[in-house]
Amino acid sequence: MSASGRKCTDPRFRRWLAPYELGLLEEGEREAFRNHLLQCDFCHAELYAMEPIMDLLRAKREAALASRRRAFLFRMRVALFAERGRAIRWVASILMAVSAGLAAFFWLRAPEKPPEVPHIASPKQASPSAPRSSLSAEEIARLRSAGTREAIDRARSAYEKGDFVRAVELLMPIARLEPENAEAHFWLGASWLQLNRPQEAIAPLRRAVQLSLGVEQERGRYYLALAYARAGYRDEAIRELETLIAENGLYRAEAEQAKRQLLRSGTVK
Predict the structure, then answer these.
(1) What CA–CA distances, in Å, run from 54 to 29, 30, 50?
(2) Calpha distance 207→229 (Å, rounded)
(3) How far apart are CA 114 and CA 227, in angstroms?
(4) Is the CATH number 1.25.40.10 carried by domain 137-265?
(5) pTM for the complete prediction?
(6) Where in the chain is the domain with CATH 1.25.40.10?
(7) 215 close to 249: Cβ distance less than 8 angstroms
(8) 90: pLDDT strictly greater than 50
(9) Cα separation of 188 and 201, whole Å?
(10) What's the chain's Rg over C-alpha atoms?
(11) For residues 146 and 180, which has the higher predicted lDDT (pLDDT)?
């Protein structure tokens, strides 16, 4: 290759003109091409002649690369937002499931408080005749074979409708057939209490307290205290009420009020 020749005789370097301008040569090739430019006027002149075209190509190349970078960043943002959306939906579903579980948990744990006992007159007032079981022998046999759940539900329905006589009639055979059925004993005692028969209410309510636990036991004890008070057993009523107050449970406020009333007037209305 001549330093002053008009044409480069090495085809390899002629092929490297454009790649050199575009920055596509390896480091060793770039170094060799620079050394060649020091010796070859033709390649040097060609390189400068290509400068405007190379500038345009470089600009287009940079624009294309920038566009690709923007597209890549856009895809990354879309993927990030999609992933974030999935995470938010997942967290929301977890929160909804937890909320539903907590609602069900507290709903199941919410104690069932029976209907309040309305004002019952003093035990000295004349009482109605005691209800008797109206169940036939066939119905009692059916109770033995099919269970007592349906009969208890019917008795509670009668109680809630104010038909306490019917409730007693339904519950008396159940209490005899199932002496360990705390629910039957409680509703039987509560029905007797509503009929102003506190003396008859004491035994089933005492039995309900013995068989129950937790809130059901508190409920039975409160009604037992009312039965004691209205039957004239003041000391026994105070004992049951003080037990409720000491337990600090659901019926504490009612027990405190009943105790104050009992100490003041000698009975609980």
Answers:
(1) 19, 16, 6
(2) 17
(3) 16
(4) yes
(5) 0.50
(6) 137-265
(7) yes
(8) yes
(9) 7
(10) 48
(11) 180
